[in-house]
Amino acid sequence: MINEQFFSSLPDSYSVKVEEAKSLLLSDSWEVVDLSSYAEDRLGNPIIGEDGLPVYVSAKVNIKEIYEGMPTEFELSVKLDLLNQYKHNDGCIQAKQSSFKTKIHHYKVIKLTMQRAGLRYLKEINYETLKRFCDEMLKPNNDLRSQGSNSYKYGIIAHASFVKVISTLGNMTVNSTIHGLIDYPSIQVVPEECIVLVKDSVSEYVEYNTWLESGTHGTMPLEVAIVILSEALEYFEKPELKRILALVAAVSKLSHYKNITETDALRAALTSFIEGRYGRDKNGFFNWVTRSRAGMARPIKMRRSNNVSDLACIYFDLCDEYEVDFQFEKPLESIDDLSLRVRHAFYRVSASLSALTGVRWSELASLKNDAFEFSSTRGKFKSKIKKTNNNSETYRPVTIHAQPIAWISNGLSQQSAIHGDDTVAPWLLKATLPWQKQPVAINGLSWHDTGENKSMGGFYRELLSELISDYDSEGIPISSHRFRHTWAELAIRRFDGNVPEAIRNYFRHWYGSFMTMDYIREKIKADLPEINRSYMRELVHRIAKNEHEFFGPAARYMLSLVQDIDVLDPTQVDELLNQFEMIKVHEHSYCMIPKQYKSQAKCWDKDTKTPIYGDACWNNCGGCMGRFTLGNDGSAHKDAIMRVGMTAQEMINTNKSQGLDNLNGYWKNQLKRAEAALRELSVQTEIDDGTNEGSV
């Protein structure tokens, strides 16, 4: 444990670093302030502090877990290394909480790995102990997995996570002097060398090349994604959901129509309706009640005008509007039962929107009631991208099938007269129930049906277990963010068109509890090569017709091939495409490297003699021969490249302000390639038919 006495024993060379942040070095809990995000009230308005300025989002983060049980020298070095990566002022760390917690996780992996390898000090990591350290890091770690980490796949740490942790360790040696560390590895730990060291150990769990291609999130298996999407789309067409929407709206309308401002009165009317047996005939609405006449009990139709009958009248009219009968398939038991059904439907909404948009959790949380806009054929939504766009609101395309889901979300959240002048929270995934006083009765991002705070991954796993009898929940990790990878693999129009419509039509009936995973997997994977090939053919024709703009080395190469073809018949197109190995989809570009240039790929692996396509990142892809970028006409590639450049510029400015410009080589390279790609996007690429002078 670090204390004042320990500081006095340090060499003079460390005194400046220590004095700069002594309060943080003495503490096990750090205040993290996100200068890119303002704290908001329930209405989405910035919270104003005593100084009259907006308050930034902040939180206390316990960092004790990254050094607990280790020597004081280890603790001090880890804290100094961490502090030198972030700005800190007045005892606060300036960082995005998610990024900071990810960094904390890397140090925790280092600590736990050292403990399992029998190492107490970082300086004990040398050439003799490095392989043992790497093997221990690779193995399953229940201490990490139990905390919901997504960093494990195939039962071992994912390749991308392995590289990030090893890089953190290697940087401690590189920066030992400038960061003032007293405990750091005795050797320079290099990720590429460590990957080779664990090859045999990896092979015990999964094929080595498969592990190399997998990232931290990876892609959700195609059949699983299709089951979820197909089931979700059909759920939103079910009559039972329409009845729930009708009853929620009816309670809201009744409260305003009769000016019912007391919660008890409104709940009493709803309870009587649920417990009653209401119907209608040619004479109007009635309630079946039991009466005794002449010693015999028999049902009679009771007609009376009160809050309950008015609620029934509104509900029946709404059922007519929604074209559904009013009788619930499973009768409601109580208001609590109705609330649980609304919560379940609301969580279906958030889970489905995460699947259709592929956005991160933080983006889902930022969606407001008016986030989605739709035309007759296309849609878009506005969200805050905290990770890559400095928390600014950004519009992005979405399938037209998200329209009824967004409408349902707004329909499930209804204000009533009991809320008075209070304004309902504007969040799309936070619901106000008309029979409950609190403004936010349901958070669609946290499912509490059983008193347990379930994640979306938990919801997906339960759903799939119901639909597929042999679903392996342990072998197939699920998270909402995996969808952004999955749609790119399944339908390569992810950044070029309205894909989910085709998915729905093509795979609509390919699921059910009576099918096995193997059957579904074989059916879908058999079609994938043709899906890819078909899209590549379409790209050729679009280039030939100058229908769209295309950029990047691979696009220019394809353009040169198309110019040499007089007539684009199917045979010639296929011969042209045979020069390309495949098409891989990434957010910032497609990967379509010609076969003859495959060895020039930035992700080329000398050992396996093949590109590691799973290593896709802008630092590799931005300067690669295989980059094929869609133009400015509606694709998401340009926006993605702009976000890469913005992030790189932000990191360069941050490091420079802290006197760490020597760490900016990577980020300057990122920025340079992003700027070059954006300049290229400003020049239209066309086929030269002899009339376009100066065309590229």
Automatic annotation (TrEMBL):
Q: Which UniProt keywords apply?
A: DNA recombination
Identification of the protein by name: Tyr recombinase domain-containing protein
What is the taxonomic lineage of the source species? Bacteria, Pseudomonadati, Pseudomonadota, Gammaproteobacteria, Alteromonadales
Lineage, top-rank taxon, reads Bacteria
SUPFAM superfamilies cross-referenced by the UniProt entry: DNA breaking-rejoining enzymes (SSF56349)
Q: State the species of origin.
A: Shewanella metallivivens
